[in-house]
Amino acid sequence: MEQQQAAPMARNRKVVLREYIAGRPPREDDMVLVDGGTVALRVPEAAAPAPAVLVKNLYLSCDPYMRGRMRDFHGSYIPPFKPGSVIEGLGVARVVDSTHSGFSAGDIVSGMTGWEEYSLIDRPEQLSKIQQSDIPLSYHLGLLGMPGFTAYAGFYEICSPKKGEFVFVSAASGAVGQIVGQLAKLHGCYVVGSAGTNQKVELLKGKFGFDAAFNYKEEPDLTAALKRYFPEGIDIYFENVGGPMLDAVLLNMRTHGRIAVCGMVSQNALTDPVGIHNIFCLVPKRIRMQGFIQSDHLHMFPQFVSDMAKHYRDGKIVYVEDMSIGLENAPAALVGLFSGKNVGKKVVCVSQELSQCTF
Amino acid sequence: MEQQQAAPMARNRKVVLREYIAGRPPREDDMVLVDGGTVALRVPEAAAPAPAVLVKNLYLSCDPYMRGRMRDFHGSYIPPFKPGSVIEGLGVARVVDSTHSGFSAGDIVSGMTGWEEYSLIDRPEQLSKIQQSDIPLSYHLGLLGMPGFTAYAGFYEICSPKKGEFVFVSAASGAVGQIVGQLAKLHGCYVVGSAGTNQKVELLKGKFGFDAAFNYKEEPDLTAALKRYFPEGIDIYFENVGGPMLDAVLLNMRTHGRIAVCGMVSQNALTDPVGIHNIFCLVPKRIRMQGFIQSDHLHMFPQFVSDMAKHYRDGKIVYVEDMSIGLENAPAALVGLFSGKNVGKKVVCVSQELSQCTF
C-alpha cells in the first residue's frame, strides 16, 4: 500500500442540511456551507469491494422536488436528506477516479451527486456519460435532463395532445414549463402560459413563442383571466403550481380535458395545503387529472434526447437557464425557486474548469 | 276530425319544481304535487307532424344528478329543470298511444319521462323498449339501467382493475356502489365499502359480499379507518361522495392508484364546496383521478345488459332497491337521497298496474 503514489489532495467544501423543515418553504439558513477538509482525489481503498467513482462537480441542479427531501417524511418515492449531511441533487461532473469499469477519469457524467466540490459516488450505475457537443454541458440538467424529460413524458404520455387543442401551462418560464409550451406549439396547439413577473411573461411570448402569456400576480380574478385567454376553454393543463390556479383552471376546463400534475410548487407545506374547491368539475366535464413522475417513463429517454437535441440544433426549441456562480450561492439559488426568483432553469456552477459557465 | 272516436280520459297529477334552489340540498317543499287536470289518452293532433309517444309512467328513478338540474346553472352536460314545470327523470313506462313507428300501445319502455302519471314524450328516439322477463321491471332503473351501467363502465373503463387489487367504494350500498363492489369481487379484487348506517354496513358484508365495510359516521378519523381496512393501501377508489372521504383516501392510495370520480353526493352546493387538501398526493403516488359519465360509454351498453342479466340469473349479482309507493311520495324519495335515507336504489312506483310493485 505504501508503494502507491500519493493521490493529489483538494479542498472540499459542502452544503449540508442543518435540520428538517416543517410547514414552510426552505430558507437559506436551513443549509450551511461547511469546510469538508481536504480529500484525496482517489476512490478510497475502503470503497474498493464495491465499485465507486470520485467526481469533481461542475454544475448542480436546483429543482422543486428537493424541498420534499428537506422534510422528515419517509412516505415518498425518494427518501429525505439527513440533517448534518450533504445535500444531494442532480449534477454534471467530471470523473476524477473510478473503480467502476464503466467510467474512467476524464469522463463527463450526469446523475445524482452531492452539493460539494468532490463527491464519492457509491452507486455509479445511476450515472450517465455525456458526450460533449455544441450543447452546453449544463443543459443536461435542463433541456436534455430531468426537467426536459419531465416536460416530454408529461406532455406526450399524460396530456394526450391533439393538434389544435388549447393548452395552458403554469410556471411556464420554469425549467419544465418552457419546454412544455414549445413542444405544444410544435404539436400545433394554442398555448398560453402564466408566470409571476412581467419579464417572464415577455420571455414566454418573445423567446418561447407562446401564443399568449399573463402575470398571475396582476390578475385579481384568475378564473376571469383564464376565461379571457381561453374563451372556448382549456383542453390541456400542465400543472406546476396547485392552489388557486388549479381551482380557476378546473372551472375553465373543456369536456374531456386533461390535467397533467407535474408538481404543485405553491404548496409549500404538507402540513396545511390549500384546499381545492372545484374538484367536482371532474364529473360533468369528464376530466382526467393525473400525477406523474418522469422516472416511470424512462423507456422514452433515448427518443427524448434524440428529439430534443435535434429540435435544439434546428432552432425549434430554445432554452433559458439562470445560473448562480459558486457553491456558496447554492442555498440561495434553491430557496429562490419557491418565490419565483429564477428566470428559467436554475443551476449552480461549481467549477469553471470546462469554461462553459457564462462568466 | 269529429268522426274520430273520443279518447279515454284520465286524471294526470304532476310533481313540479317550485323554483331554483341554490347553496343547499333540495327540500320536499321545493317540489309540489299539482293536479294537471284530465288528459286524453291519445297523442294530440298538434304533435302529429313530429312523432310522439304518450306513456303511462310505472316507475320513476331518483338519482343524485337530478339535484344539479334543480339549480339555475346552464353550464352542465344537461340543462336545468324549469320552475313551474314537471320534474324530469328516468322511468319505466307503458306506451298508451304512439305516432312513432318504433313504438306501439302496450310496449314497455325506459328513458327520460316526467314525474307525472302520463307523459307525452316528444323525443321517443331516446326511449328503449324493454322485454319483460323474470327480472323486475323497476330494475331497468338500477341494475340494468343508468346506475348499473355507471358502475359497469366506471369499473371496467375508468378503474383499469386487476385481479387482487384493493378496491374501496364509498356510498357503497347505493344504486351504483352495490354493483361496483360486486363486480370488483367477481374480478378477484379485495373490496371494502363505506356507508352511513350500520344496517347498510351489514347489507354490504352480508348480502353484497364485500370483504369488509364500515360506517363512516362512527369513524372519528377517516384516514386512520382506511389505514386499518387497507394496511397496504388502496389501488382503486370508486368515488361517490367527495369531501373529507376523498382527502382521507388520497393519503391512503397506493402508487399508480386510480380514482374513478362518479359523483360527489356530499357536495351539496356549487356555491361553497368543501376544499380537498391532499391533491398533492397525485404526484408522488402517480394517481390518475378521472371523472366520467356513463353516456360516454354507450358502445358498451349491449354487453352490459347481457353480462348483468346473466350475473343476476346466475345468482352472482344481487340488487337491493328501496321503493316508495305513489307519486305523492316522490319529492320525499328524492330528498332522502341527500341524507342517505334510502337503502339501495331509490325508485318510486307510480302505478301498480303491472303488479311488480312489492306491495
From TrEMBL, chains A, B:
Keywords: Oxidoreductase
InterPro entries found in the cross-reference section: ADH-like_C (IPR013149), ADH_N_2 (IPR041694), ER (IPR020843), GroES-like_sf (IPR011032), MDR_fam (IPR045010), NAD(P)-bd_dom_sf (IPR036291)
Gene Ontology MF, one: oxidoreductase activity, acting on the CH-CH group of donors, NAD or NADP as acceptor
Keyword ATP-binding included in the entry's annotation: no
Transmembrane segments: none
Enoyl reductase (ER) domain mapped to chain residues: 36-348
Subunit structure: Homodimer.
PANTHER family per UniProt: PROSTAGLANDIN REDUCTASE, ZINC-BINDING DEHYDROGENASE FAMILY PROTEIN
Identification of the protein by name: Enoyl reductase (ER) domain-containing protein
Protein source organism: Oryza barthii
